[in-house]
Amino acid sequence: MIKIESLSHHFEMGKKGKKTTLPVLKNVSFAVNAGEIVSLVGKSGSGKSTLLNLIGGFIHPNSGIITINGQAVTQFSEADWADFRLNHIGFIFQNFQLIPSMTAFQNVELPLILKGIHDSDRKMKTEETLKRVGLADYHDHYPSELSGGQQQRVGIARALVLDPPLILADEPTGSLDSETEASLLDFILQLNKENGITFLIITHDHEVAQIGNRTIEIHDGELVKGAYAHELQG
Amino acid sequence: MSFKDKISFVRQNMRKNKMRLFMTILATAMGCTFLIVLASVAFGLHDTLLQDYMEHDRINEIEVYGTSDPGRDTMHLTNEDINYFESLDHVKTVRRSTTLQQYPLMSIDNYQLATEAKSVYYPAEQEAGFTLTEGRFPEQDNEVIVGYHFASLLAPTNNDNEELYDDYGLLKEAYQYDGPIVGDTFSLEIEKIDQDGAVEIGKFDVIVSGIVEQPKREWFTESTVYISEQLLTDIEAFTETTAGSPYIEYQEGPVSDERTYSDIVIHSTTIQYLQDLTEKLAEENYYVYSVASQVQQMNLLFNIAKAGLIFIGTIAILIASIGIYNTMTMAVTERAGDIGIMKAIGANPKTIKQIFLIESSYIGLLGAFFGTVVAYLLSHVVNWVIPVILESAFDDTIPEGFKFSSIPFVLVLITILICLAVTLISGSQPAKRATQVDVLKAMRREI
């Protein structure tokens, strides 16, 4: 599903003429097989967020190759990335990233609108997805009228609504209490089991990381655990 | 993302800051109103002057006064010329008339009127749009039609002139002929003055079959008697002069058997062929005149004036576009978070750009719509108020139908297109900025 080969990235810091280079990822290689739940753990500043940003196409790597679902995405333009994200990747964000002026229904419906799905089909699909995440009665609620757990469920519904084969989750339980966290993790497991959705979850919480089939640990931009050589063949 | 969804998205976004939106639309509407009202003055005056030409049915006419062909009587055109004119392409009809060379006295009972008379060819007159207000066109040689004011000018013969006319010199209503006119038999009296000055009166009984429509120029008094060509021939036979002149002493030789015409007017099918026809006839030694060249010059002048005024008006819309630019820039800044989220979940940069361009166009179109409505209202007010002001300030009467301001559809269309172009240009930079919103910065944190 995801294949990363010799991926390196650095950030340039400072003003012009006095720029310094800060290496963030150093020759990283690993793979995530279809249907897996892989947890990516590491301390703050270890490079795990940068790695997810690179896989999501929000930043472009300095070197290396990223292949998702059989497509080499490294040289994608911004427009290519937009289409690719819409069709292949769902995102779950730590602070939900819902559009505050839209209701729960409208937030979930947004990817369907962007894809140009017909009005009646998308209403049906949105309702079905909201029902699936247990928010059938919260259609017309704005994000500010929902609890953190409910907002995250809206976020998950938005990620799921186009049935992507891959979901990238960034600290999905970071803003939730322990009870809601447990419920959400169960839901992720259920989605993986029933729909075969591949998850790459970034977390610093080892308990959350345990739901994964495999845990990859990153330290100072290098993978220190979980990225076995045979995985590159996957 | 479908166009309908983009519109719906834009409308949803526009509701977020209603006051700012209102002020931007107001500024755009004011710009559009200014452009339309300014240019409408040129359109109004142009229309009025053009209408003036059109009302006199002269716009597609070529007047033929005679010919400079060697060996021909300069001022007398014949049926041969008429046939030639009718054979030309794009000629609708050829009106011809001969004015009687004296004012015959038309009398009935105790009423009479000495007025102009002319023989006309009715089929051509009808083809050219000559219409009656009452009765029908003559079918017999002794039938005539009379001008609109003929009846009101018929004066009683047994009264003192002082009593008959009011202060304006018009026949008092009480003394006017109250008969039906149409169907009445008049005596048409023709004078014949021989070389010794002896006057002989010839009387011809004529029946009025119709009354001509009221002249479009209200001040114009029309009391002409239109007679048949046969009646003219009979009159000529009596006076023994061409066109019924009373003075036989000026007649050179006997009256010709061949009918000649003093006035010939060619009507072209459309105005676009008028210039070509005029030039062709002039090349063939005919003395011709048409208003086409004057109208063309007038059109050129007014078109330049319209373009100039539209250009000045466009400056007002350009000023309003600064407001649109500002509104759109603020919208992009305020919605950077939403844009970031949309891009993160797969919104194409092109879609984002289109959404903002649609939004600026929407503001422009709303401004143009309201601006046009206000401009129409102002135009009506201007057309109503200015004559009143001029009349009270200068004690001068403005002709009825005179328009200071006119808003044709083409002016509205031009305004909408200018407004749309200006708003698209002013919205393009903010729209481009929207596509460049950094997803990670917009979401305020890296994922």
From TrEMBL, chain A:
Keywords: ATP-binding, Nucleotide-binding, Transport. Residues 2-234 form the ABC transporter domain. GO terms for molecular function: ATP binding; ATP hydrolysis activity; transmembrane transporter activity. It comes from the Bacteria. One of its GO terms (cellular component) is membrane protein complex. CDD domains: ABC_MJ0796_LolCDE_FtsE (cd03255). The keyword RNA-binding does not apply. SMART domains: AAA. Belongs to the ABC transporter superfamily. PANTHER family: ABC TRANSPORTER ATP-BINDING PROTEIN YTRE (PTHR24220:SF648), IMPORT ATP-BINDING PROTEIN (PTHR24220). This is Acetoin utilization transport system ATP-binding protein. It comes from Amphibacillus marinus.
From TrEMBL, chain B:
The keyword S-adenosyl-L-methionine does not apply. Residues 310-434 form the ABC3 transporter permease C-terminal domain. Coiled coil: none annotated. Keywords: Cell membrane, Membrane, Transmembrane, Transmembrane helix. The chain crosses the membrane at residues 300-325, 362-386, 406-425. Pfam families: FtsX, MacB_PCD. It is found in: Cell membrane. One of its GO terms (cellular component) is plasma membrane. GO terms for molecular function: transmembrane transporter activity. It is a multi-pass membrane protein. Residues 22-233 form the MacB-like periplasmic core domain. InterPro entries: ABC3_permease_C (IPR003838), MacB_PCD (IPR025857), Macrolide_Exporter_MacB (IPR050250). The keyword Nucleotide-binding does not apply. Its main location: membrane. Belongs to the ABC-4 integral membrane protein family. This is Acetoin utilization transport system permease protein. It comes from Amphibacillus marinus. The lineage of its organism: Bacteria, Bacillati, Bacillota, Bacilli, Bacillales.
